[in-house]
Amino acid sequence: MKNVTVKLTQQEQHQISMECKRNPKKIWQYVNRHTKSETEIGNLKQHDTNGDEKVAESDCDKATILQNFVSLLYTVESDDFDTLPSRMDVQVDRTTFTVTEDDISKKLIQLKIDKSPGPDLIHPRVLDETHVRLIIRPLFLIFRKSLKFGTLPTDWKLAEVTAVHKKGSKSEIIDLLA
Fold it and tell me: pTM for the full model?
């Protein structure tokens, strides 16, 4: 049964890649269908300092409990800014660093198609099965502009952090201060 499912998925992806020039909507429909998460966080339980159990049912309460829990895991740094240099300026000679369309092509060919999508939510398999040469020029222009002005697109500076449940009940928030 698993082999049949894999075969059907491969056929669907192949069909989409073959139709991508005529109907680009098909790719985005496929990507959107496969990148949406249907999971939600269940009710969370937390014990306060008196030992009383508090149950968070609303999304806002759940977010607050998780935020408080995660904040306990990190060290708060000192606000003593006197130890920092007044200006942190790193000079890089961008004229010696170049990116060519050939460099981009080689990197796209080396993509591992079994990895997760990046911030653009485009799965590497989709890039692999579509005609890579169609996106080389736009990528080249983005990279060239980034190097010319010494800036990065905002999306490249963002990270999505996901908590991964390890053990125990998913509804219990462990109080690390206890």
Answer: 0.41
